[in-house]
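User: Here's a chain of 61 residues. Predict its fold as tokens.
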Amino acid sequence: MDWFTSIVGLKDKSLPKILNIFGIIISVTVTSLIGAVIPAFIVASYIFGVTALVIYRDFYA
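Assistant: Prediction complete.
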């Protein structure tokens, strides 16, 4: 890690804080993405199922 800190020009104490902040941001982003994708997927599959049912009823009823 010494070459990395010398390239970035940071002291050893400030680097873990920055990495920690990045980790928090990444985890929050991933959780919010998952939290947004799952309900959207459920709603989309529900709409698709209802639409397919209506089309099926119209054609074969």
